[in-house]
From TrEMBL, chain A:
It comes from Triparma columacea. Belongs to the snRNP Sm proteins family. This is Sm domain-containing protein. Keywords: mRNA processing, mRNA splicing, Nucleus, Ribonucleoprotein, RNA-binding, Signal, Spliceosome. GO terms for cellular component: catalytic step 2 spliceosome; Lsm1-7-Pat1 complex; P-body; precatalytic spliceosome; U4/U6 x U5 tri-snRNP complex; U6 snRNP. Residues 1-16 form the signal peptide. Residues 2-76 form the Sm domain. The lineage of its organism: Eukaryota, Sar, Stramenopiles, Ochrophyta, Bolidophyceae.
Automatic annotation (TrEMBL), chain B:
It is found in: Nucleus. This is U6 snRNA-associated Sm-like protein LSm8. LSm subunits form a heteromer with a doughnut shape. GO terms for molecular function: mRNA binding. The gene is LSM8. It comes from Triparma columacea. GO terms for cellular component: precatalytic spliceosome; U4/U6 x U5 tri-snRNP complex; U6 snRNP.
Length: 99, 99
């Protein structure tokens, strides 16, 4: 759930999504769901002349399962906050103390 | 915000499958697993040695786990292209995918 929330904070930012078929799409992150399926608007394909198949896209829905990397603008990420949140998420759950 | 594909319904869409195939059709239906119903569908088969081959398919159901990219096709831009003159390697298949 943490990374879903994290990706939600990136909505509206420009990201580059590298897929497991080596295609790289750049565009504005339009939305994201719990499976990390991503929707990009104003998409361009890196090395576009190699991929005429993807030439005339207005927007793209990318299935989360085919994403290899998402490159995000470093200025948009508070890594300390993210690290803290990750630790918190993985911290052992405190047992309720019986009175 | 859920990353739905509702806005693409009844639009002409371009589907890139995990095996690298490229399907064009009207998106008539979908579900939460991104299973798709495409009507008036055809495959564009790209090759580096011969022109783009159009294979008429009719109504097609694409299982969600074999979907890689789903995008709205810019119909006007697409009509301007001369598919017969395009030579390109097919998109590579997706490796290591899990739904």
């Amino acid at each position: 759930m943490l990374f879903f929330s994290f990706f939600k904070t990136l909505i509206g930012k420009t990201v580059a999504v590298e897929l497991k078929n080596d295609v790289i799409l750049t565009g504005t992150l339009h939305s994201c769901d719990q499976y990390l399926n991503l929707k990009l608007s104003s998409v361009t394909v890196v090395n576009g002349d190699k991929y005429p198949q993807l030439g005339c896209l207005k927007n793209a829905f990318v299935r989360g399962s085919v994403v290899r990397y998402v490159q995000i603008p470093s200025g948009e990420v508070n890594t300390e906050l993210l690290e803290d949140a990750t630790r918190k998420e993985n911290a052992p759950k405190k047992r309720e103390v019986a009175k | 915000m859920a990353s739905t594909i509702k806005e693409l319904i009844d639009k002409k869409v371009n589907v890139v499958c995990v095996d690298g195939r490229n399907l064009i059709g009207i998106l008539s239906g979908y579900d939460q697993l991104q299973n798709l119903v495409l009507t008036d569908c055809h495959e564009r088969s790209y090759s580096s040695t011969s022109p783009v081959e159009l294979v008429p398919l009719g109504v097609y159901i694409v299982r969600g786990d074999s979907l890689a990219i789903l995008g709205e096709l810019d119909v006007e831009e697409d009509a301007k292209r001369d598919l017969g003159g395009i030579r390109a390697e097919p998109v590579r298949p997706v490796l290591h995918t899990q739904s």
